[in-house]
Specification:
CATH superfamily of one domain: YVTN repeat-like/Quinoprotein amine dehydrogenase
Shape: flat
Number of helices: 6
Helix content: under 10%
Distance between the termini: 144 Å
Structural class: mainly beta
CATH topology of one domain: Methylamine Dehydrogenase, Chain H
CATH class of one domain: Mainly Beta
Strand order of the largest sheet: 3-8-7-6-5
């Protein structure tokens, strides 16, 4: 019995019982607490907030942030029931008006044509009233002045029509036609030319005003109007500046005298030595502030260089001694287009876009004479004969070539055949004839002083030829054609030398000057990219391409007494000497 009892008590004790926990799992320590469902205590809301037990700061006012979830102050009841104080919030209450249906007020949608709207708008602007478009039955029918509306019968401005009597009142009336018998004075016949009643003759002043005007005029006479300061280089205000220390050397010679001691080769015949192609820049002349448009060497010796620029100035440069600027000539108001020396170099002509042609003294810098016919001269040339140094030709923008006599200052001949502005004038055939080229893409040859074309060259494939140079042998002239080639023509029969054609450079759009070496062996030209290109005259092959400037090389000249010296001028404002 006791055994049985003992067994049963073993059974009750749990861990040892084979039926309850055969593997002794209960003896392993528990990792997690078992979830026990405890009887839930109900959450009772507290009516009073958690407030400070004592209020040392006497915080009676409630200041909360929007993020606060607790109030830390007990507000007294009387504060809670106070009436609202302070100004009314204009934005708080959405509907400020009784019939407000939008934030800005009462809005109704209405459809009307542009014409109807314009009529009402004009009526309101001019007459001061317009129809009310509202569908609200309580709204007034008219907006604006009710009296004006009633006066005009509520009509829009388009419906109103002025009565005839009013129209006639406003119409201006003619004065009476006058009497046919009377020629002059009061009541003279004016007929349909009678003036209007309202017109006041310009010279007629009402009686009272006359005295006032007279008294006003008197003090005005004393005040002289300020004249605009005349520009440097304007006609009659030409000037020049000498840049050296002294005009004369120890022998009393000016810069006109060739520096034979520094350059003995100046005494030789030009073109007597064999020429070569230059390779390096040995000198740069700076001084022009804008592009250089033309370069000319002193005749025969070539010891001075004349340059015309778009900065309106003409400068004379020294080549052999110090390589500096000798003189600046201020004589044009706009860009200089062309300059040319007389045979002895003592005088030179310049022309510019200010429509002026001026004759200068090279030595003293004086402007001797000025010529103008109101057109832009594009080219000026002295007649090369010694006995005709008082005659020069100018190719103008109005398609004419004009011949001036310097002594009298008068136009002695006009050559008028071209159909476009004249670009070049070249004397040929012992100066008995001259050749001109123009924007009309033709070449015309003339006998000097006879305004009749003796040779007219025009082909459908020809382009404009804005630069022409004579070969040193005087048998040919080379023309820069704007289709990127140089064409050569004979000076005796003006036929094109088909075997001589120089291409491979890009000049389209630029009047780049053509150059010949003094011995005639090389032909050269600037191009639009800033290069100078050299061809062999015999073969037509490009021998060299010299990178000379950053912009188009518009002008260049070979020094006549040197074997390989070339001066280049460009739109970058620089003039360079190459050897």
């Amino acid at each position: 019995m006791s055994l049985v009892q003992g067994y049963s008590s073993d059974e009750d004790s749990g861990p040892h019982s084979p039926t309850n926990d055969a593997f002794g799992l209960t003896s392993i320590p528990v990792a997690k607490k078992p979830r026990v469902d405890e009887p839930s205590t109900s959450l009772v809301p507290t009516s009073a907030p958690d407030v400070l037990a004592e209020d040392p700061l006497h915080q009676t006012a409630l200041v909360t942030r929007p993020t606060d979830t607790q109030m830390n102050v007990n507000i007294p009841y009387q504060d809670m029931t106070l009436p609202v104080q302070g100004p009314e919030n204009p934005f708080g209450d959405r509907n400020r008006f009784l019939n407000q249906n939008a934030l800005a007020g009462h809005v109704e949608e209405q459809a009307m044509s542009e014409h109807a709207f314009r009529q009402q708008h004009l009526t309101h602007a001019i007459l001061g009233y317009s129809a009310n478009p509202s569908v609200d039955p309580n709204a007034p029918a008219v907006i604006g002045s009710m009296e004006k509306a009633a006066e005009n019968g509520f009509a829009t401005i388009g419906m109103l029509k002025a009565p005839k009597a009013k129209k006639n009142e406003l119409k201006r009336k003619r004065k009476p036609k006058g009497d046919l018998e009377v020629v002059d004075g009061d009541g003279a016949y004016e007929g349909p030319w009678a003036s209007w009643d309202t017109d006041r003759p310009e010279n007629m002043v009402p009686e009272g005003e006359e005295d006032e005007e007279e008294s006003e005029e008197e003090p005005e006479e004393a005040v002289q109007p300020k004249k605009a300061k005349p520009k440097r280089g304007a006609p009659g205000l030409e000037s020049s500046v000498f840049h050296g220390k002294s005009m004369y050397d120890y022998q009393g010679r000016t810069y006109m005298y060739p520096p034979v001691s520094e350059a003995p080769q100046l005494q030789q015949e030009p073109g007597s030595q064999e020429c070569f192609i230059p390779k390096v820049c040995i000198h740069t002349w700076t001084g022009h502030t804008q592009g250089v448009s033309v370069l000319r060497l002193f005749p025969n010796t070539g010891h001075l260089l004349l340059s015309g620029s778009m900065d309106t100035k003409i400068k004379l440069w020294d080549i052999y001694t110090h390589g500096n600027c000798l003189r600046t000539f201020h004589g044009h108001m706009k860009a200089v287009k062309d300059v040319t020396f007389s045979n002895d170099g003592r005088r030179f002509l310049s022309c510019g876009y200010d429509r002026q042609m001026k004759l200068w003294d090279t030595e003293t810098g004086q402007c001797v004479k000025r010529f103008s016919n109101g057109k832009i001269p594009y080219v000026v040339r002295f007649h090369p004969d010694e006995d005709k140094q008082h005659i020069f030709l100018a190719g103008m923008s109005d398609k004419k070539i004009i011949q001036y006599d310097i002594n009298s200052g008068e136009i002695t001949q006009e050559y008028d055949q071209h159909l476009g502005p004249v670009n070049t004038i070249t004397f040929v055939d012992d100066n008995r004839r001259f050749v001109t080229t123009s924007d009309d893409k033709t070449i015309r040859a003339w006998d000097f002083d006879i305004p009749v074309v003796i040779k007219y060259i025009a082909e459908p494939h020809m382009h404009s030829m804005p630069a022409v140079t004579l070969h040193p042998s005087k048998k040919y002239f080379a023309a820069q054609s704007l289709d990127n080639q140089i064409l050569v023509y004979s000076t005796d029969n003006f036929r094109q030398a088909r075997n001589k054609r120089f291409a491979g450079h890009s000049v389209a759009g630029y009047a780049c000057q053509v150059g010949f070496s003094p011995d005639g062996k090389w032909i050269s030209s600037g191009d639009g990219e800033g290069n100078v290109v050299f061809w062999e005259w015999k073969t037509g092959r490009i021998k060299s391409r010299l990178r000379a400037h950053s912009k188009v090389v518009i002008a260049h000249e070979w020094l006549p007494h040197e074997t390989s010296k070339v001066v280049t001028g460009s739109w970058d404002g620089l003039i360079k000497l190459w050897d």
